Amino acid sequence: MKLTILGGGGFRVPLVYGALLTDRAEGRVTHVVLHDLDGQRLSAVTRVLAEQAAGVPDAPAVTATTDLDEALRGADFVFSAIRVGGLEGRANDERVALAQGVLGQETVGAGGIAYGLRTVPVAVDIAQRVARLAPDAWVINFTNPAGLVTEAMSRHLGDRVIGICDSPVGLGRRIARVLGVKNPGEAWIDYVGLNHLGWVRGLRVAGRDEIPRLLADPDLLGSFEEGKLFGVDWLQSLGAIPNEYLHYYYFNREAVRAYQQAEKTRGAFLADQQAHFYREVEQSNASALEVWDRTRAEREATYMSENRETAGAGERDADDLSGGYEKVALALMRAIARDERTTLILNVRNQGTLSVLDSEAVIEVPCLVDANGAHPVAVAPLPDHATGLVCSVKAVEREVLAAAESGSRSTAVKAFALHPLVDSVNVARRLVEGYSSVHPGLAYLK
Fold it and tell me: For residues 223-245, b (16+ Cβ closer than 10 Å) or e, as one string?
C-alpha cells in the first residue's frame, strides 16, 4: 500500500513514519513517498527516517520527490500536511495581526484567516490533482486551518477527504486520566464543534457519564491542563470542557497582551528552531534522529506557553508531550484500508449532524469509521453560546472560501471584519493591506 505525504520535509513527518514502523499487520503501508518543494528539508527528514528504520524488518520503503504529480500517482492514501508560506509566513501572520492589536495565531482569528487565504488555492489544486491522478485515494488532511482546508478540498473530493486534529483526542485522554479511566479507548467522548472550536460535554464509561462528577469536584477539575488554563469556576459555569484553543476566545485580551509582550511569537520561535534543526542535520555528523528528538521535546514543552503563563497554569504535564496526531491518522487509515471499524473524532461534512449548519459544512465530531469512510454520529444541539460561536466562525470560513475562489479583496476584508476576534471593519482593511504586503501568496486578491 502506497502512502504519499505532502509536506514530506515537515518536522513532524518522523512521528508518522515511527508509528508506521510498529504496524506489522497485513495490508500495511509498504511504500512512503515524501513530497516537498524544499529539497534540503526532504534530505534532512529522509535521514531521520532512515535512522528510525535501521534494524526494523520490512520497514516501509521511502522515496522523496519535488514533483507533485509523480508523488500522487498510484497513491492509496495521501496525507496532506503542507504549510504555504512556511514558518516565515506564520511569523508574518502573527506580527501583522499583533500590530493591529488582534490575535495572529495560525488557526484562530486574523492569523487563521490569513493562513487560510494563502492555503485554500493550493489545497484546491491538490484536490483536483488527486481526483485526476489518484481517484481512488483517500486524503487525510493535517493542514491547518484543518476544518476550513478540509471543506475546500471536499468540494472536489467529497467524503474522500477527512480532516484530523489531535486536540480533541488529547483533551479526552486528559479527562479520562484524571477520572481514573484505565482504558481511555473504552470511553465515549461527546465532543462537538468546529476544528479548534469544540467542547466535551460528556464522557461515558460503561454507559455512565462521568463529566458531572468531574465538574462537581474542584480539586479534580483543576488538576489537568484545561482546568488550569480556563479556571475551575469558568468550566463549572460552562458545564463542559472546552478545547484549549477556546482560551483565545474566552480570554482574548489577556492572550493578545501576552503575545505582544513575548520575546518571540510562536511562529518566529519555531522558524528559528527548525532552521537550526535542518542546518544541524545538513552540516554535522550527529545522529539526525537524536537531533530531531531533542528539538521535538523543546517544541512540545513550549506549546501554548503564553496562554499557560496568562492563566498561571505552570509547566505542561509530561504526559501531554507525546504528540498524537499521527496516531489518529494511522487509526483512520487502518480502519478504512482494513475495514477495522472504530470511532474517532474527525473533521467531516455535517450531513445534518448539527442542525444549525448546512450539510456541506465541515464540523468536528465523533465518527464511525469503516471501509466506506467516516460517518458522523448524531449529537445533541449545542447551547446557545456555543451555537453563536460556531455559526459565526463558520460564516467567516465561508467568506474565506469565497474570497479564495473569486480573488475578491472586498470579500477578504469581509472575512476578517466578521470574525468575533477582529470586530472592526477598519482593522480588517488594515489587516488585508498588511498581509498583502508581506505574503506573495495573496497577490491574487484584487
Answer: bbbbbbbbbbeebeebebbbbbb
What is the rounded distance in angstroms from the CA atom of residue 290 to the CA atom of residue 276? Answer: 14
Strand runs labelled E in 188-319: 188-194, 197-205, 208-209, 241-242
Q: What is the dihedral of CA 280, 58, 15, 194, to 10 degrees?
A: 150
Radius of gyration of the chain (CA): 21
List % helix, strand, coil for the chain (3-state, nearest 5).
Answer: 55, 15, 30
What whole-number distance in Å separates Cα of residue 62 and Cα of residue 241? 41
The answer to whether 91 and 265 are in contact (CB under 8 A) is: yes
Residue carrying the nine cell digits 479583496: 409
Q: Going residue by residue through the chain (446 aa), what tens digit of pLDDT does each one get?
A: 999 999 999 999 999 999 999 887 767 999 999 999 999 999 999 999 999 999 899 999 999 999 999 999 999 999 999 999 999 999 999 999 999 999 999 999 999 999 999 999 999 999 999 999 999 999 999 999 999 999 999 999 999 999 999 999 999 999 999 999 988 878 999 999 999 999 999 999 989 999 999 999 999 999 999 999 999 999 999 999 999 999 999 999 999 999 999 988 999 999 999 999 999 999 988 899 999 999 998 888 776 666 656 666 665 565 554 457 888 999 999 999 999 999 999 999 999 999 999 999 999 999 999 999 999 998 999 999 999 999 999 999 999 999 999 999 999 999 999 999 998 999 999 999 999 999 999 999 99
Residue/partner pairs of 433-436 with CB below 8 Å, 24 or more apart: 434/96, 434/99, 434/100, 435/92, 435/93, 435/96, 435/114, 435/117
The helix/strand/coil state of 431 is helix
Q: Looking at beta carbons, which pairs linking 422-429 to residues 24 or more positions away fall under 8 Å?
A: 422/102, 422/109, 422/110, 427/100, 427/101, 427/102
Q: How many CA atoms lie within 13 A of 195 on its CB side?
A: 28
Q: Could you tell me if residue 191 is left (phi over 0), alpha (psi between -120 and 50 degrees) or otherwise beta? A: beta
Of 82, 88, 160, nearest in space to 123 by CA: 82
Vertex 362 angle, CA 361 and 367, to 5°? 125
pTM of the model: 0.94
d(CA 422, CA 394): 15
